[in-house]
Design a protein that fits this description.
With 314 residues, the chain is of the alpha/beta class. Helix content is 49%, strand content 17%. It has two domains: 228 residues, Malonyl-Coenzyme A Acyl Carrier Protein, domain 2 (3-Layer(aba) Sandwich), CATH 3.40.366.10; 68 residues, Alpha-Beta Plaits (2-Layer Sandwich), CATH 3.30.70.250. Strand 4 and strand 5 form a beta hairpin. It is globular and about 55 Å long.
Length: 314
């Protein structure tokens, strides 16, 4: 049996016009955007469809925007008869996975990730944190660099294990800058600063995690009907308690995306469908294992391609 995973991108994939073709043509798709506006009390849909990009990119706007688009696309796929056997999301994308897997309602998820974005935005003053992608460096060597810089007084840690040869670090601006220099001196091919608004997935985000914990305790969650892979442990999340802990821990923990994909492949997944704008996750999946099939759904043409391809899936 062909096994399918729906995967959902995280912050950074947002773009003005995301989902526009679906929303302009279909009542069901438009309803997701309208419900998000109602939950949040402002027109998120205007930002998503008309911009400006600078406002859409703000953490507390980008997170509900990506969740809304990703879950809308997943629902559209399901209505066409394409259903996932597993779900996974990169960082913020994990909340879209939770909605599609039946863990939480769309409305609760939109409200929660908006708060999550606000908490993250407030945790570290602008300009005090940074992130960078380190290319072609062994994990142990990079960990040693991070440990050395942190011991010197500037926090820096591994934030994302994206794929072989691509690891993201996060921490104070000074810490990340120092780690980039040290990483290149230790053999890294490149160290690329990322355009982000904060040091995500680092211990500097602990104030945000603490605030989010208060929100999570008030949520009505259900055990997943479709297995979800944990960003934090790369294991399947099967019960409410572990999901609550995941939501909190994920804010300060490394995203084990490479390990997530490897776990899904070990579970028999051979088709990955990225639901949302861009092709970032599909590209990472291919770098992890070129033998699997990847699809990205973000407009009419890409949706039609997946529907046509699905006729051959047994």
């Amino acid at each position: 049996m062909t096994k399918i995973a729906f995967i959902f991108p995280g912050q950074g994939s947002q773009q003005v016009g995301m989902g526009a073709e679906f929303v302009s043509q279909e009542v069901d798709s438009k309803a997701f955007y309208e419900r998000a506006d109602e939950v949040l009390g402002f027109s998120l849909s205007d930002l998503m469809l008309q911009g400006p990009q600078e406002s859409l990119t703000l953490t507390y706007n980008a997170q509900p925007a990506l969740l809304t688009t990703g879950t809308m696309i997943a629902k559209k796929l399901q209505l066409s008869g394409i259903n996932p056997h597993f779900t996974a999301g990169h960082s913020l994308g994990e909340y879209s996975a939770f909605v599609v897997s039946g863990v939480m309602t769309f409305e609760d998820a939109v409200a929660t990730v908006h708060k999550r974005g606000l908490f993250m935005d407030e945790a570290v003053p602008a300009g005090k944190g940074a992130m960078a992608a380190i290319l072609a460096m062994e994990v142990d060597a990079l960990q040693a660099v991070c440990d050395e810089v942190t011991e010197s007084g500037e926090v820096v840690q591994i934030a994302n294990f994206n794929c072989p040869g691509q690891i993201v670090i996060s921490g104070t601006k000074q810490g990340v800058d120092a780690a980039c220099v040290a990483a290149k001196a230790a053999g890294a091919k490149r160290a690329l600063p990322l355009v982000v608004s904060g040091p995500f997935h680092s211990q500097l985000m602990k104030p945000a995690a603490d605030e989010l914990a208060k929100t999570v305790t008030g949520l009505s969650l259900q055990a997943p009907q479709i297995p979800v892979v944990s960003n934090v442990t790369a294991e399947l999340l099967t019960d409410v308690a572990s999901i609550q802990q995941e939501m909190v821990n994920q804010v300060t923990s490394s995203v084990l995306w490479q390990q997530n994909v490897e776990k899904l492949i070990a579970e028999g997944v051979s088709i990955f469908i990225e639901c949302g704008p861009g092709k970032v996750l599909s590209g990472l999946v291919k770098k992890i294992d070129r033998n699997v099939q990847t699809y990205c759904v973000y407009d009419d043409a890409s949706f039609a391609q997946v529907v046509e391809a699905s006729k051959e899936w047994a």
